[in-house]
Amino acid sequence: MSAEAPYLRPRPANYVPLTPLSFLGRTAELYPDRLALIDEDRRFTWQEVRQRCDALAAALMDIGVKPGDVVSVLAPNTAEMFEAQFAVAMAGAVLNTINIRLDADTMAYILDHAETRVLMLDRQFALMAEVALQRTKGGRPVIIDLGGPGDALPGSQRHSDLVRSAPADFQPVVPADEWQTLCLNYTSGTSGRPKGVLYHHRGAYLMALGTIAGWGLSGHPTYLYTVPMFHCNGWGHAWTMTALAATIVCCRQISAKAVYDAIGSFGVTHFGGAPIVLGMLVEAAEAERPVLPHKVRVMTAGAPPPAAILEKVEALGFEVMQVYGLTETYGHVVQSTWEEEWNEMDVAQRATIKARQGVRFPMMETAEIRDVESGKRLPKDGTAMGEIVLRGNTIMKGYHKDEAATEAAFAGGAFHSGDVAVQHPDGFLEIRDRYKDIIISGGENISSIEVESALYRHPAVSAAAVVAKPDAKWGETPCAFVELKPGASVTADELNQFCRQHLSGFKVPKCYVFESLPKTSTGKIEKYKLREKVKTTP
């Protein structure tokens, strides 16, 4: 076919930059009176949410925020945090949501590295923020007080004053290019300084649509926001649920009681959460664990959930879909889809299948495993282990101010996840480990996740993490850090015998440490701390 004629060029009528901002405009127009946000005793309709976002965007411009400036937010899951997912971009700025559980030094680093122009701050974290601000090297940003428990920092501007009204002629800034930066999210920083991950408008838009298709969403869900909105923009569910004109229930403090109460009081139909949240639901006291009035659909990610936890939580009436992704991929890009014929299996078999990470979401082009040394694609045989590499439209632009790390991440034309997995004949990926978590004992590769899954099956175990312990004879051997359920007890010998029933001998831990495990705010166990500790463990 010859080259197309010039008149077939893209035009404003047929080529509009993709942006999640369009979801808010459509929903507010079509469903102005539908309930949008529930935040404790506050209620907002979609028309009110749009008006508040317009007003905040206009206020940011009045403060002096210019396109490309960074607006940081330090807040839990509140109405203000949800609205920031739209309002900051409507001012042409870049949203940076900061992990509320970081230490002051790391917060200060992020504020400096991001060159934060405005900091929107919930009073609950004002004291920590002030310490971080005193340690920054740049100028002090404008502080917007979001309310909450406690006192505002001196000199703060009240958010409630800023969102009273927008100018009658206000028009939000829409991106001229869908590749324009929308968000700046920092990785969890499990080793060294966290890296700043840049998202574009196109990826956020497609993430929302891909989630709708992949999760099979329809109608107007009632969504409980248990996923921290500082983590991958709450997995992009703010954009997803806005596109569906859903009702979003904000959750400032996550607990089993909060989840069960929201289901009973507001008719919650969907929520997301790390496996630690599923564990909370399973281990809740019977008085806090009512019979669910309807099936509740849950998306879980953050760490591979043990099959035993999936089995128990589904018995309570939750329908769980595991997903996999990283900060660099806007969150979930692989999903554990379900085939009808698997319904004939027993509960334990179904849970084992659901524990696999799955196949790529609709918005992803490829998700495969490759040999680290050669870069060659490995067979789908369920045994060959390689790195998960990804290609698709919900991959980051790159790392902020870090060209070398960006080039390394994209080497060979795909994004390198750093996760080790096998791929089954049906295409399902199953994570074996992070590369640094693979234990090589006497020349044999041991998956720490496989050992942890065996430990989770013991009725006394609440959480488990397995790391490599240096060994003079074997090079390294598995060491298990175990957190027990309240009131439960088990000895190292008993756990050892239990593991031998479920694992090959060389995979059984050679030492056990019983203690409360360090975790990030999203439920991931901080193995890097355990790796340091194991060096001094006898």
Quick rundown:
With 538 residues, this protein is an alpha/beta fold. It is built from 17 helices and 26 strands. 30% of the residues lie in helices and 25% in strands.
Question: What fold name goes in the CATH topology slot of the largest domain?
Answer: Rossmann fold
- Output mean pLDDT: 92
Shape verdict: globular
Oligomer: single chain
> Could you name the ranges where pLDDT drops below 50 across 5 or more consecutive residues?
none
Largest sheet: 9 strands, mixed
The share of residues in helices is 25-40%
Classification by helices and strands: alpha/beta
Protein name: AMP-binding protein
Family: Belongs to the ATP-dependent AMP-binding enzyme family.
Pfam families: AMP-binding (PF00501), AMP-binding_C (PF13193)
Keywords: Fatty acid metabolism, Ligase, Lipid metabolism
Give a structural overview.
With 538 residues, the protein is α/β, with parallel strands linked by helices. It folds into three domains: 21-204, Rossmann fold, CATH 3.40.50; 254-435, ANL, N-terminal domain (Rossmann fold, 3-Layer(aba) Sandwich), CATH 3.40.50.12780; 438-534, GMP Synthetase, Chain A, domain 3. 30% of the residues lie in helices and 25% in strands. It is built from 17 helices and 26 strands. A nine-stranded mixed sheet has the order 2-1-11-10-12-13-14-15-16, sandwiched between helices. Helix 2 (46-63) packs across helix 3. The N and C termini lie far apart (72 Å). This is AMP-binding protein.
